[in-house]
Design a protein that fits this description.
Blueprint lengths: L8 E2 L4 H10 L18 E2 L2 H8 L3
Antiparallel strand pairs: 1-2
């Protein structure tokens, strides 16, 4: 029997970009400086850190 495990991920971005994500979905990042390569990044269980990241843009 498997057990459900909930993981909360927070994505830091601007309000304009958040609105676009709701409408069209995520566009994977493809920047040279992305430390994990192409993808979409989330802060696990860290809403404050995601807020800080989103405040940069």
């Amino acid at each position: 029997m498997s057990e459900t495990i909930w993981v909360y991920g927070y994505h830091g971005t601007s309000m304009d970009r958040a609105s676009a994500i709701v409408k069209t979905g995520f566009n994977p990042s493809n920047n040279e400086y992305d430390w994990l390569g192409k993808g979409i990044y989330f802060w696990q269980d860290a809403p404050k850190r995601a807020w800080q990241w989103g405040s940069l843009y």
